[in-house]
Amino acid sequence: MNTFHKVSQNQFKELFKTIIFYDEQIDILRKQLFAVENFSPIDFFHSLDVNGKNFLSLTDFSDFLSFHNISFNTFNLRKLIRTYDKNNKFTINFDDFLNFIKPKFPEENPQSINNIHPNEIYGNILIEELNLIDKFGQITFSIKNTKDFNVYEAFMNISKGNNYLYFEDIKHFLNEKYIKDSKIKNIIYRIDLDNDNKVSYEEFKEVFFPNKNYLINDYSYTPSPIHLSICDNYQSIYSPMNTSMKNKIEEYILNKLAKNNSFVEKKNFTS
Q: Are 15 and 143 in contact (CB under 8 A)?
């Protein structure tokens, strides 16, 4: 019996919309990073690659976060690298890094900002990416523990019986005219592990059952508090961000942009 529509459809819509919501917040930070005067992606990449390896490893990411006193879950950090490492080497080369930090949506960039160090903005990008992975994990954990859930059945329903899941399939599934195509395409990017602009069943299944050989960790999910980087007082919450929270975040960001001030008040990012 096909139980997908009865049990899981709304949960999958929540999952996809959660990705879109966080991507919108992360893109604001990406635009601010690129608006820093004289910002050079390649120079910034090399500043993070402290040993001159021409790639960033898990150690590079964890050292940056630890140096700036940013708490993180190592399993989620591995999943973040998994998202942007399109060569399946568990490293981030410059092309991967550029895809990680460059703005994804075509809105206007903010004005140049002189008094914010790129490390500060980059730190917030990492925090929000990890927040997304944490929330993503909560939702997928809930979905796969729903009675009678079948991951193959879900894939075949969303892909309309095809062997691959495409941008058009998610657009049709969401059936939301106000969501821009670029934001739906970024959902595909996050799930597509081999960068062929489509999602196979194996890639889709990994959303729920991560590859242990890649992550080298216990893949059972343990919920942890979401650490909001751009909300007052670094509030920790478990519940999803609702419209009120989203408005609060956007208002906070706009106020900070207007003042040419720092996004992060509680942390002292240094070079």
A: yes
Helix, strand, coil shares of the chain, percent, nearest 5, are: 55, 5, 40
pLDDT along the chain (271 residues), means of 10: 67 93 92 90 95 92 93 90 88 95 76 75 95 92 86 92 94 90 92 91 90 51 37 32 48 48 40 44
Q: What is the model's pLDDT at position 144?
A: 87
Cα–Cα dist 145/178, whole Å: 31
Distance CA 251, CA 108 (A): 18
**Is 264 contained in some domain?**
no
Look at residue 63 and tell me if it is in a domain: yes
pTM: 0.76
The tokens describing 218, both together, are: 């216990």
Whether residue 265 lies inside any domain: the answer is no
Confirm whether 214 is domain-assigned: yes
Residue 165 sits in which domain range?
4-259
Structural domain count, the chain:
1
Say how far apart CA 179 and CA 199 lie, in whole Å. 20
Regarding beta strands 236-237 and 226-227, do their DSSP bridges make them parallel or antiparallel, or are they unpaired?
A: antiparallel
Residues in the chain: 271
pLDDT at 235: 32
| DSSP 8-state secondary structure symbol assigned to residue 113 | B
Q: What tokens does 250 get?
A: 């956007």
Helix axes 181-191, 201-208, angle to 10 degrees: 80
